[in-house]
Design brief:
The chain is mainly alpha-helical. The protein is built from six helices and four strands. The strands form two sheets. The protein has a two-stranded antiparallel ribbon with strand order 1-2. It has a two-stranded antiparallel ribbon with strand order 3-4. Helix 2 crosses helix 4, helix 3 runs antiparallel to helix 4 and helix 3 runs parallel beside helix 5.
């Protein structure tokens, strides 16, 4: 039976690159340098190997700065070449594994409990982002309302001075609008504190955990890719070449396994602390939001001010042209 012909594979470019690397690393062998008698272009009979010259007083030439620079440049090029090569091989293996998983041909390592928690976090983040967006919209609209109340109060106050027959009525409405404006500034301080805290929770704390999750998912894909590679080599023939490749595959697999397990543990710990922090933060912020909004719409100025004191929220000094914004202690 004739041997089966192997078609071109994605590894072919790397084989060529390997040959190129060997050429770059080997370079000229200075131990084989010869001395030519009779000057440049002499006959072969005049060549005396340097290994046979003893006690002649000849000293090896000092390497020139140019040669040393060339060697350093070549070393850097080889190092970069190795990095690109390893990245290319790793990318190929991971892409192959990903495609196999997508088409249902490859096996995938699954931690059901951890992946359920990760999906729950992503869903929670989306919902909290929606709350954050709505809270910001509320702040924007309420800020406009407070600005309008402030302008309306000034207009009523001006008319009360210029309309003696309606001075009392205009003055009463001016005082009402000023009081609403003052309470509105206080409520804005509470709402801005709420928005700031939710923003930190969503875009810093949750995002930091999800960054670790992405590293974990990449490590999982690499682990499965090298595991599959090791399994395929283990099922092949056990000749000398294959055994060398098998040892290398085992080493790569063990390295990626350790990385995967470490990141899996990191994600589990971060998810635990995130859940505890989320409950603590949201308990405080939801209580603040409820008490502040309830006190404002009930017209209870004293309770509204007390709510801000309870949560250590300070406003700018009265008399500012714009409604006061959040100042945290």
């Amino acid at each position: 039976m004739p041997p089966r012909q192997r078609g071109a594979t994605p590894f072919a470019p790397w084989l060529a690159m390997k040959d190129l690397q060997q050429v770059m690393v080997s370079g000229p062998n200075l131990n084989e340098t010869s001395i030519v008698s009779g000057g440049y272009g002499g006959t072969a009979e005049g060549i005396i190997p340097t290994s046979t010259v003893k006690g002649s007083g000849l000293h090896p030439p000092h390497p020139s700065p140019l040669a040393t620079g060339d060697e350093a440049a070549r070393g850097i090029a080889v190092e970069k070449f190795d990095i690109v090569k390893k990245w290319g091989i790793n990318t190929y293996k991971c892409t192959k594994q990903l495609i196999s998983e997508r088409f249902g041909r490859g096996s995938r390592t699954v931690d059901l409990e951890l992946e359920t928690q990760i999906e729950l976090l992503r869903d929670t983040k989306r919902k909290y982002e929606c709350v954050l967006q709505l809270a910001r919209a509320l702040t924007h609209h309420f800020y406009s309302l407070v600005q309008t109340q402030h302008a309306l109060g000034d207009a009523f106050s001006d008319l009360s001075q210029k309309s003696p027959e309606l001075q009392e009525e205009f003055g009463c409405n001016a005082e009402t609008q000023k009081l609403l404006c003052k309470n509105g500034e206080t409520l804005l301080g509470a709402v801005n504190f709420f928005v700031s805290s939710i923003n930190t929770l969503v875009n810093k704390t949750m995002e930091d955990t999800l960054m670790t999750v992405k590293q974990y998912e990449t490590a999982r894909l690499e682990y499965d890719a090298y595991r599959t590679d090791l399994e395929e080599l283990s099922m092949g023939p056990r000749d000398t070449t294959t055994l060398c490749r098998l040892d290398a595959a085992q080493s790569h697999f063990q390295s990626h396994k350790e990385k995967y397990e470490k990141l899996r543990a990191d994600v589990a710990i971060k998810l635990k602390f995130l859940e505890e922090n989320k409950i603590k933060v949201m308990h405080k912020q939801l209580l603040l939001f409820h008490n502040a909004v309830s006190a404002y719409f009930a017209g209870n100025q004293q309770q509204l001010v007390q709510t801000l004191r309870q949560f250590n929220i300070k406003l700018k000094t009265p008399g500012a042209e714009k409604p006061s914004w959040l100042e945290e202690q």
